[in-house]
Specification:
- The structure is a single chain.
- The protein is α+β, with helices and mostly antiparallel strands.
- It has 5 helices and 9 strands.
- It has helices at about 50-65, 65-70, 85-95, 105-110, 150-155, and strands at about 15-20, 25-30, 40-45, 75-80, 100, 115, 120, 125, 135-140.
- A hairpin with a 2-residue loop joins strand 1 (about 15-20) and strand 2 (about 25-30).
Length: about 160
């Protein structure tokens, strides 16, 4: 397993398929990290669509999306399920942020958040507008998640 990137380190570019629910339509497209340069980005790695803690986490971030937007940031959810699963998850819970499909877990491995036999560790990374890692939290067990408030405080610290 690759080590998780250190704070201040440039994050390697990646592109993942995904989609976002907009006015009732699930818009599918590719999402590329480098296209977000100039703006902060929150990457929320989560184990699975429509599971108990993941649902609470993503619903929390979706309902708090305006707070992230006020900080100039987007939030991307990333898990190993496919785009069809993400669409069903987004529609069922009205999730408003992009959900990306890391089906081969290449991005998850690059961020050092895979768990052999268990999948993905619940983790959040804040990428600064210059493409460097500003902040991260990697859960040991994954039964809890970082709140919107904690994340927006970290985003505010970017200045």
């Amino acid at each position: 397993m690759a080590a998780s990137p250190d704070r201040g380190r440039q994050i390697a570019d990646f592109t993942l398929p995904g989609g976002v629910l907009v006015d009732g339509a699930f818009e599918r497209r590719d999402f590329t990290l480098s296209e977000q340069r100039g703006k902060p980005l929150v990457l929320a790695f989560y184990p699975g669509d429509d599971t108990s803690v993941c649902t609470k986490q993503l619903c929390s971030y979706s309902s708090g999306l305006d707070a992230f937007t006020d900080c100039g940031a987007q939030v991307w959810g990333i898990s190993p399920q496919g785009v069809d699963s993400h669409e069903a998850f987004a529609r069922k819970h009205g999730l408003r942020m992009p959900l990306l499909a890391d089906t081969d877990r290449a991005v998850t491995r690059a961020f050092g958040v895979t768990m052999p036999g268990l999948g993905v560790r619940r983790s959040v990374f804040i990428i600064a507008g210059d493409g460097t890692l500003h902040w991260k939290h990697i859960a040991v067990i994954g039964a809890t998640f970082r709140s919107t408030r904690t994340l927006t405080e970290q985003l505010a610290a970017l200045g």
